Amino acid sequence: MGWRARLLMLDGLAPVIDDAGMLVWGTLADCDEDADLVFLGMMDEKPCFAAIPDEGATGPSYANPQIWAAIQALAPPDLALYGGARSLVDWHARHRFCARCGSPTKLAKGGWQRDCAACEAQHFPRTDPVTIMLVTHGEGEDRKLLLGRQPRFPPRAFSALAGFVEPGESIEEAVAREVLEEAGIAVRDVTYIASQPWPFPSQLMIGCHSHADEDALTIDETELEEARWFSQNEVQAAMEAGRDGNGPFAPPPPAAIANVLLRWWLDQGK
């Protein structure tokens, strides 16, 4: 089977991209004989694998220019494939020992599980749920949207507020809590819009929409550097100008669900 199998080429956790902006594939001969491989699935009737690196992520992904360049360059199918592979191999690289007894664990079920021979514990790749939410105030032509920026954002960049879902919490409760904590705003009528896996390291972004009856902000400066209300015209101008344009703010990158949420919000106002 080796001659038929394909290996996703990675530089650590970063993708290897060719001149056409596509993922580079090799064969199993391109990795060490003793490398642990995870099974990614079948493509063109060929099994596809990725090798687990020696180390997992050691710092925030947003600080790696190579990763962000890849996100912008890859087409959606390649980005989805790379994202899943990166999340999986990063988890393996950082979970080589049992969380119950500390003994070494071994890859199982093609890389979708790790088993501990010492205490027989089974470990599975984790996905952390994160709510990312639009907050609207007002109606019709007077409606406006709450966006914030974190200190790590590029200059002028604003995005939807976001936060992890806590244990025992519903999606709706997480939206209300995060908005209240970060911006001091109480919201109601939380609805789901769309979701996106975000493998940095391994999150599921749950896109939601909510309404605020009041617009006075009390910003948690440990979470946000700034938060502002933007009119529909301002959001429209920013989206048309793009991240490198001269709009009222720099919108989220096209590959991020926040960009999809802003376009959805604008469509609702037409």
Task: From the structure above, extract its key features.
270 residues, four-stranded mixed sheet, Nucleoside Triphosphate Pyrophosphohydrolase, 5 helices, 15 strands, six-stranded mixed sheet, 30% strand, single chain, alpha+beta, 3 domains
Q: Indicate the structural class.
A: alpha+beta
Which quaternary structure do these chains form? single chain
Name the helicity range. Answer: 10-25%
CATH class label of the largest domain: Alpha Beta
Strand content: 25-35%
Structural shape: globular
Distance between the termini: 55 Å
Biggest beta sheet attributes: 6 strands, mixed
CATH architecture of the largest domain: Alpha-Beta Complex
Low-confidence stretches: none
What is the alpha-carbon Rg in Å? 21 Å
SS elements, strand count: 15
Number of helices, counting only DSSP H or I runs of 4 residues or more: 5
